[in-house]
């Protein structure tokens, strides 16, 4: 359930909700970090649930000594009413066997808030791609039937590729196909839930591998920006770069001690 930071706090009406899936390389979560940091989105509350691994830490978006003392939890909500934008950042993994309960709580909250659309940022294992996915763009999208009619022309204009369905029995029966997102966490299940609940949702994902996934997060966000225009311009030479949060300074440790050499 959503717990507001203040009694008079409310989410923007008819806003777009962005949230990540805990997936390969944590690309979706890294992209959400960049959005919150770049747009300087204020925290409006947190999503309380026992379905995520408990965690607490320092403010990941600290800009000075004062706000660096603030704490963050495993699921927090940020909002920017002037842009009609709401963000849910998920910072820990789902507890085993509680994925369904979390998705149910999430869809109930989404319907209660009446978001205009929901965009789930995710990723999938690059080495699981089949032959038709090996060429062209590393990005894919999925949209629920409720959102399909309003974004079909935009997706066609952007030349985005929809996530292909793969054969259940490759080489044996290629007619039986299904949507498969290996390494995507709860992406596929959440998408199917939103389809059945008539929620206007889109999944935007990138094929990648584990490692330094910061470039993947930048690439995914640049790709998303062509649709949602989160920055004033999608032209890299004109638009300011995405701002990395202060918590990324030690994302891969503090480096090798000079005394080793």
Count of DSSP strands: 12
Described by the principal axes of the CA atoms, the overall outline is globular
Q: Taking all residues together, what is the mean pLDDT?
A: 88
Query: What proportion of the residues form beta strands (DSSP E)?
Result: 15-25%
**H/E element string?**
EEHEEEEEHEEHEEHEH
The low-confidence runs, each spanning 5 or more residues with pLDDT under 50, are none
Helix content: 25-40%
Largest beta-sheet characterization: 8 strands, mixed
**How far apart are the first and last residues' alpha carbons, in Å?**
52 Å
Radius of gyration from CA coordinates:
19 Å
Number of helices: 5
In order across it, which strands form the biggest sheet?
1-3-6-7-2-8-12-9
Tell me the structural class. alpha/beta
